[in-house]
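U., I forgot to send this yesterday:
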Amino acid sequence: MRKFWLLIVLIIAAVATIFFLRVGKIVESTVKPEVLNVTTSQVTIAWTSKEKYKGRVSYMPAGTEVPAMSAAETFGASDQHEVVLTGLRASTRYTYWIGNSKSRYQFQTQPAQNSPFSFVAVWGDVSDRVVPLMRSESGEFIVSLTSAAGQKSDWFSDVRPYVPVYNFSGVDSPFLKATGDKHQSVPNNLWKLDWGGLRLIFVGGAAEPEKIAEMLNSSSAHTIGIITSLEVVGVLFGEAKLHSILVGHNKQHPTHPAAFAAVIGAGEKSVEIDGVQYFGVDTAKQTGAVRVDVDVESSRAVFVDENREVALKQPPLKQKRTCEECRRLADKGAYEESVKAYLEFIETHKGNFQIDDAYFAIAEIFDSKLFEFEKALGWYRRLASEYPDGTLTSLANQRIKYISAYADYDYKPLTNFERIKAVEYARKKDQPQERDKIFGEVKSLIKAYPDSNLAPVMQHWLANQYRLSEPDKAVEAYMTLRKNYRNHSESQEAMVEIGETYYDAGRYKEAIKAYNEALVELPGLADTIKSQIARSERNLRRDKIAYACWGIAVIVFGTAFIRKPRRIGARSIVCACAAFVIVGAVSSFYGWLIHEQFNSAREMVLIVSSFSAIAGLSALISMKFTRKVNADSAGVFSAVAGSLAGIVFFLAGIYLAIYHIYIHYLIVVKL
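Result:
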């Protein structure tokens, strides 16, 4: 009886291993990461955890439905994680998450050298307003102008998963401080931040003039800015050593000038001296923020809480606005102002090579931002007429065709539907109650305009969205599409989509039925539909095999340990432990060789642990069967029977382990 309990302990140990690995995933759902080291093509995501594991980050371009990419740490398990995401596109927003966490965050890569952008500088305790501030000002990073000494809490904890934070000493990061990063332990008197076409230099009181001059030399920066203190420049600004360094640099490098200097503690003083724009930041006020807009030809500082704006860099011809400035206005959400800027650009730059860009930009604003399709159509047609061979003309013609096709009812269905998709659904699709309200709006729109050319498109869109979360409603929507718009192109493959809906929901019998109906209706897609039917039948077969394996495992286990005699010998325990260790070692080594084929290290460990536990139980079963049969039969027959029982249990257990951990690995054995 004592050895019987040893068997129970072995089973509990295997279950506990699996439970531990499962619980380990919870750790990843509670972390709050930081965005560090942002460039045009890569970003570092960092976080700490209570448990040690190998961190993994999944990511995809925001607003897309492409399969997620992933990256893992290069070192082993740790409670301090840094994952580098590479191969990214410049000036692109990405959605990311840690491990299997449901929490979603976003970051944006650095812009290309000539692209406009903004950053936000803050001082004082902004913890209660930093999130809405970053949303409204669209800053790509934060500069903290307040010393962290004596700071009781992290003012930027809510925005660190989205944007990097810097201060006078370098990267402002609790993670780097916690990990003992050398850049956090020694205050910097002089350091630089390169972002897009801006070089931002932080100058402290003990900075060496020669090193400042070296940092000013940047062939890649179209704008150079300084952040310093009143202690460095003095009250008169122009008599400081720093000023002479800036002026000397500008004379030698007029195409890459030091354009401005923000002076901390200089009140609201603003003055241009020798082509360098100085502006004061009054940190004596309890809290405040300034947004700095950077462009190739112009830059400005806008004090968020004050009616104050400082021009930091002026274009060569102040009366003319460039397309870059126009785009910056559009990026800020000032669409009407952006259109006015483009119109001014067109008027003052006749014959410029960017005129067709301006036409297309105006059309796109009216099209996708203001939803004024009649005006958009006019600008698209103007572009196609005046620039028939332009690079943007093909895109313009596509939009002309789309808008013209759905222009009935004075554009009302198109306007409402596009606004719902682009604004409401984009913001609220992750909120079930709000999402249902949006779907209700689309249904009402279809009901109001059932004869509109857009009605089948809206019905198809509705079915596709339901498919992501509610398969029965998706099928109902697809069937409505087939019933009401039978001959429309949107409904031609509805039965195929119904089959895919059932397949994604794991309802394979219903999927096969739908695919067979589609096969009759769409003989031209026979090969594709037959492959879908085969895929569904394969999954049904997998389920049946799994049920059979559970039955076999229960029968063999029950026969071995429940039917008398139940005694387990010491030799059996030793053999079971040996099997556990040997299979664990072999499968661990092989798993390490092919570790890149697993979705995560934790998944690999889970499979290895399951295989080891199953091997140990199979060894015990084999020994038990041999002894039970040996009592009534010859030794050879009992040994064969015991071996077969152990092998059968092992194979059934291996199948079930793969089936429940990651079923698609069964493809390796053609199942």
